[in-house]
Design goal:
434 Repressor (Amino-terminal Domain), elongated, 273 residues, 45% helix, alpha+beta, Beta-Lactamase, five-stranded antiparallel β-sheet
Length: 273
């Protein structure tokens, strides 16, 4: 859940949802919503409740209760999908609507599999320190030359770009990563937390199943149900050519792409000049 909503009560969220829908309804003109011939005389410039209900395939009473924040009203993901379309919500508005309602957006998977924007790819390539971009299955979608030099066996030409397959299945990972078991246990717990909302994704479930079959360590860590949020901190590597390396890890989320995570490893000589 969005950090701005974690402290909200259910009543607060229902009121926020109702207020958001009402504001969007009042801001949308009939013409913009595809309604014509609705009459020129209106008390408000936006849509009426009955018009939104009609466009969203809901009863007027039901939609009115949603706007009023009624406690006994539950909105399905399918109904939210229709409301998002009726109100012409953009990606941010749609995400906010589903977040307030506590539902998973059925279109989220398609958006998350979209191509990485060219500007994001260029930004990753321009970063001086090792940097890579992971999708929600923790497969690298972009990385720079410094990351390819550091992660031998993963980003330096290997066929498989998935971080978990590298960490648990590649022979060289245990030698490269200092305190491999501690880091692997932590990564498994972070992945467990990150993929919780997406366990209905067949590809993600197949990845977890494959790793459990092929790695006893992953199965052991996964079945322990450790759940941890991603955090920064020191990361150390024993590189076959560069020797012992220490970095401070930081992560970011590109704007508008919550499915992507940018990781940077800050080391000596990579700060501002």
């Amino acid at each position: 859940m969005n950090a701005t909503m974690t402290g909200m009560s259910e009543a607060d969220r229902r009121r926020e949802l109702g207020g958001f829908l009402r504001a969007r309804r009042e801001a949308l003109s009939p013409a913009a919503a595809g309604l014509h011939g609705g009459g020129a005389r209106r008390r408000t410039p936006g849509l009426r409740r009955e018009e939104v209900a009609q466009l969203g395939g809901l009863s007027v009473t039901w939609y009115t209760w949603i706007e009023q924040g009624r406690r006994d009203v539950s909105v399905s993901a399918a109904a939210l999908d229709r409301l998002a379309g009726a109100l012409r919500l953009d990606r941010a508005g749609r995400a906010y609507l589903f977040e307030l309602a506590g539902r998973r957006d059925p279109e989220a998977g398609a958006a998350e599999d979209a191509a990485v924007p060219e500007a994001v790819l260029a930004a990753v390539a321009a970063i001086a320190c090792p940097a890579y971009l992971l999708d929600r299955r923790w497969t690298a979608r972009a990385w720079n030359a410094a990351a390819a030099r550091l992660f031998t066996g993963w980003l330096d030409g290997a066929a498989d770009r998935n971080l978990l397959r590298f960490l648990f299945l590649a022979p060289g990972a245990r030698g490269l990563i200092v305190d491999w078991e501690g880091r692997a246990r932590r990564v498994a717990a972070e992945f467990h937390a990150a993929c919780g909302p997406h366990l209905d994704d067949p590809a993600l479930r197949a990845l977890v199943g494959e790793l459990r079959r092929r790695s006893g360590d992953f199965a052991r860590f996964w079945d322990a149900y450790g759940v941890l949020g991603r955090e920064g901190g020191m990361r150390s590597f024993r590189h076959p050519e560069q020797g012992l390396l220490h970095y401070e890890q930081v992560t970011f989320e590109p704007a508008g792409r919550p499915d992507l995570t940018l990781t940077m490893l800050i080391g000596p000589g990579t700060g501002p000049g």
